Hints:
Layout lengths: L4 E2 L9 E3 L31 H8 L4 E3 L2 H7 L7 E3 L1 H7 L4 E6 L10 H13 L4 E6 L3 H13 L2 E7 H6 L1 H9 L3 E5 L5 H9 L7 H13 L6 E3 L6 H7 L1 H12 L7 E5 L4 H15 L5 E7 L4 H4 L2 E5 L8 E5 L22 H9 L5 E3 L1 H14 L6 H20 L4 E6 L7 H8 L10 H8 L17
Parallel strand pairs: 5-15, 6-7, 6-9, 7-8, 10-11, 10-15, 11-14
Antiparallel strand pairs: 1-4, 2-3, 4-5, 12-13
Helix pairs in contact: 1-10, 2-4, 4-5, 4-10, 5-7, 8-9, 10-12, 11-12, 15-16
Amino acid sequence: MNPIKIFLNENDIPRQWYNLAADLPTPLLPPLGPDGKPIGPEMLAPVFPMNLIEQEVATDRWIDIPEEILNILYRWRPSPLRRAVYLEKYLDTPARIYYKDESVSPPGSHKPNTAVAQAWYNKQFGIEKLTTETGAGQWGSALAFACKLIGLECKVFMVRISFDQKPFRKHMMGVWGANCVASPSPETNAGRKVLEEMPDTPGSLGIAISEAIEQAVTDKTGKTRYSLGSVLNHVLLHQTIIGLEAKKQLEMVGEKLPDMVIGCCGGGSNFAGLSFPFVADKINGADIKIVPVEPTACPTMTRAPFAYDFGDTACTTPLLAMHTLGHAFIPPPIHAGGLRYHGMAPLVCQAIVEGLLEPRAYHQLQSYEAAITWASTEGFIPAPETSQALAAVIEEAKKAKEEGKERVILFNYSGHGLMDLMGYDAYLSGKLTDYELPEEELKKYTKDLENLPKAEMRKSGKW
Ligand SMILES: Cc1ncc(COP(=O)(O)O)c(C=O)c1O
């Protein structure tokens, strides 16, 4: 039998992260300040430590991973590359389906790859406390875990709907010593304002980000910073260890490059982590289809404009050039809580503008159906976010059968769903429905973008 669990040993772990900014044919548009002018690194200093700001603006292709970070990651890295032979057999497909299993980390997802790095760089810079937001709770629990190991205090603002739907994530954060509150909260000006206007709001990542930033920048000791679990360049950078490992593992079983790379997208970090090393191959001429997947309820990449927008609801962040549903977007309460952000990583968006990526959106029910097929064949129960990627994988495997083509499909198994069983319960008892963001809603939320600077769509025209 060909191996279906492909392991690297610790000595083979990648020792550098890959930075797509070095290879994009058209550079990223710069972040802008409130005056509409590009911001300098010093403007981010109250929010992030300077060593991470340097990574945020870096254009070096390779950035060394400090040994002390690797020493923490060895707890679960290199993560296994697995081949989904049981699913392949069930679908009777000629496709070979490989997945990078990021569910094996202690918090259960890819998020600690950057949480550990961010906590470490903050500690090096003399910071004592991190604040953050979390949607599904995956990011909050990952940062709580990293702060515990590295010795930082951690405060998490958790989007109200997930706080109620996923109480166990909150308990995980408690085990790792973090303080988690529902957002909007009465603890910040941003939270109080939203609560006054919309007392019953399910919350949003945009609101939670405003609260976490406010609490970091108003700490008079200067020892608190904010940490973001996705979207920013340095976060995506830290996740590229996933794709770099996957490349070595595919080689070990004699595969050349994959034909398709698939990942779900909330802010873009797990997708980017797996795919960016392969995007580099595509830039250099390889024929690879690279597919970021999102929910139809939150169609940032497939329907929203490419525009300058704020990263948060209270408009406190710099303006980023990205596909965006508008910073006031309140997403419908679908169960893939980690995929409800209004924006998308600028690096992912610039790659979309270039034509290097082919985004797709799937309905919630198709994703749950895919998750059940997966659990019934491979056995593992995926996170609802991961199930969105699975919907695309299964569709592609069926297409390969119809066309009678062997195809290598690689996707990111971004997390397990063992803390997300309420969503499965809702699906199995027939309570879930599909939702497609109506055009009027999209127009309503993106109207504010008209008053912000325009983002030019720059592309080389090669793809
Ligand atoms: C399991 C899982 N996958 C994917 C995501 C989406 O985030 P990102 O696009 O940053 O990978 C999340 C976010 O919480 C998640 O928990």
